[in-house]
Predict the 3D structure of the following.
Amino acid sequence: MATELALAAAIFAALCLYFVLAGADFGGGVWDLLARGPRAERQRAAVAHAIGPVWEANHVWLILVVVLLFSGFPPAFAALSVALHVPLTLFLLGVVLRGAAFAFRGFDATGDRAQLRWGRLFSVASTISPLLLGMVVGALASGRIRVARDGLVSGGFFAPWLTPFSLALGVFALALCAFLAATYLTVELERADPELAEDFRRRALGAGVLVGVAAFAALALAGQGAPRVREGLAARAWRWPFHAATGLAALLALASLVRRRYRRARAAAVAQTLLVLGGWAASQYPFLVVPDVTLASAAANPQTRVLLLVALAVGAPVLVPSLAVLFRVFKAARRA
Amino acid sequence: MDGLGYARAQMGLSLAFHIVFAAVGVALPLLLVMAELRWRRTRDEDYLELAKRLGKGTGILFAVGAVSGTVLSFELGLLWPRFMGTFGEAIGLPFALEGFAFFTEAIFLGIYLYGRGRVSERLHLFSALAVAVSGALSAFFVTLVNAFMNNPAGIVETSRSAALELEPLRAMWSPSWPYQTVHVLLASYQATAWAMVGIHAFFLLRDPRRALHRKALGIALPLACVAALVQPLSGDRSAKHVALAQPVKLAAAEGLARTTRAAPLRLGGWPDPATGEIRGALSIPGGLSFLAHGDPQAMVIGLDQTPPADRPPVVATREAFQVMVGSGTAMAGVAALAGACALRRRRRRARGEEAPWPRGLLVALVAASPLGFVALEAGWLVTEWGRQPWVVRGYLRTAEAVTSFPYKAAPFWLFTVVYLFLGAAVAYLLGKQIVAAHRAAGGARGH
Ligand code: HDD
Ligand code: HEM
Ligand code: HEM
């Protein structure tokens, strides 16, 4: 396989892991914000318990995406940093306040007003980042970011990402994060606290329906919001099986939630997310920024690409077992 | 300020903020491992207590380090797209390796912080050790990037539109790396250990018989003293290297206007850019030539060898250098004093006498304790200001690298407010916890 393709695949894999793992941490913040009813405090505690040990590790997938992007495809990183300065800055604001407030809340464990305020900041900040991430993806696909051969970026600093299509993708991403979080929580709480598991089951169902609605909205707006991608998609034969598989996974996830088959629901929700991301990547291929920056045009020199792949191959044997330990310790089914 | 000014200020502020947490992230896990090891060896509850408290602080300090570092990795592109677009592939390899170090760090930090009692004691200790090692590796790799910017290597040819011709392995190992990485790692241990020494010495002054603080001092003080005594040697090595590799940086750091034989070392004072003199300085004949080249007669290159447009800001660079070297010298002095006291204390204890730390020494330790972070910040300012007007020395100017995004003041103010807020929050929370822990332990145990 060509090295730029292999690198792109690695970036994509890291992005998928970021979404499936850290996305759910953001989704946890959403449920903290929306905690309601007599068990609100228990719901918040369950969210905190679930993300506490893992959020920093989950967050590093993003760093890996960024680092591989700027070293493997430097001009693409430069172009999108210029064009998407505003949404990326707001995304970062969410990342910073979410992480810091979560740590501060756990630290300030006195149950007083200060702790409540950190909690509020944590939950509000958690909703910012997925929303903006979705909007950034929408902008990348929109075709409105133009990059000249010398790297000059045009198209405006707001127009590419402030569109109905981008907004729909933002809502979609946010709903998907919330859906993943609630679904994971049902598995973790099933035995430890069935009442809470039931709460999150209902929330997962609600979020799952919202995911579907946002997906249809985005699809309907794509013709106007991302015409090139839409046309390219229409010309590709694989799109129907792909759409069908995504829809099936979504239905399976919802059906499993209805029937309280939480493990299966979790697997289906993850599959659904991966299919969505895969669909996006495939429809955008070979563009990194539609329509001017492609994998080939932005790729770093071949030597760097090979070395980056070597670095990945060397890093993985350290990373994978360590992650396995982390998740085995903290994500084994909780008992009461 | 113009747009470039805001971008510089934002970058500098973000880095100055991050580096505090990064240094703590390098060194605190090591102190934690030492406390854990003593707890395992002695089963003295004080060490467990200490490890728990350090762990608690590590939790929030790491979180802030992680999020501010994330901001930085985006800011490289948000503020300096041309730098990343052209040189991203040159600095990518060390950053990618750093990414793996972060991963290991974050994973084992999670296990350490949340795993006490849930994982085996051995895995728990191993986790702390893994955090300490990967923290040091993170700092090592990112410093390779900075060494490349200061003293680029492996660049065969650049042109704006074509891809960079470069040898990434040589770019990763700039000739400056052995100097910078050693100095940076030592600085991290030194700054953090002195801060910890300061806190415990302060409480010992108020309550001299508190066992916990004595034991904490016993852990932090040796590291602080060794680092403080070795660091000037490492700094001297760095300075000698800079004199050859980046002579204009040294000239700015010393405020040396004209190329001079037998150049004097001038301490204190304030450079006057108009005349090239330094007002009110104490002058040691031949001192600079000796320090820079090991020979009091040697020629030291001054600013005059560089066209004015390519010179770094002299006043700022020099005063920052003075602050670093002054702080380093002061800490080395206090460290030597502490070493002497420790020897005397050991002799008296061998004779079975009681041997508290002398009050005078504790006062000196408290007074010197912030200097580690002061020197750390100042040193980075020397490096970064002294490299101006270049991002990558000789290849890319800061003014060319900056983003075309027109509203640069907005993100600057945004992040300034965020960092002020986070800094205040961390200071408040840690302060509150330290005081509360001191009070709580005061009644229950210790004497
Ligand atoms: C605890 C902190 C600390 C202390 C006590 C010192 N330094 Fe330092 N110094 C740093 C922390 C630091 C640093 C970590 O902030 C820098 C910035 C970049 C680097 O490589 O290390 C630095 C840079 C730096 C440089 C520039 C290197 C470059 O740009 O390539 C020189 C020449 C020195 N130092 C020299 C000294 C001398 C002669 C010291 C004598 C006491 C000294 N430092 C003490
Ligand atoms: C490996 C570490 C570092 C890297 C890769 C790095 C990188 C950069 C880059 C790319 C810039 C913008 C271009 C330029 O102005 O030259 C910059 C500027 C700056 N950095 Fe660093 N930096 C590092 C460490 C630090 C630290 C720890 C500080 C802490 C004080 C710092 C302070 C500054 C300041 C003040 C500027 C603005 C300089 C000016 O324009 O006058 N840097 N750095
Ligand atoms: C432009 C320069 C820099 C960038 C882009 C950067 C990036 C980052 C990032 C993304 C993280 C978070 C990792 C995580 O999520 O766990 C981080 C943490 C860290 N960085 Fe930096 N960093 C820079 C400068 C520095 C410098 C100058 C040092 C030390 C000399 C340093 C040492 C560390 C360490 C030890 C950590 C982990 C400890 C902690 O999280 O507090 N970094 N950095």
About this structure: The longest helix of chain B spans residues 3-42. The pocket of protoporphyrin IX containing FE (ligand 3) is lined by residues A 56, 59-60, 63; B 18-19, 21-22, 25-26, 62, 65-66, 69-70, 72-73, 76, 102, 105-106, 135, 138-139, 142-143, 184 (CB under 6 Å). Strands of chain B lie at 155-157, 165-166, 260-261, 265-267, 270-272, 277-279, 282-284, 299-300, 390-392, 396-397.
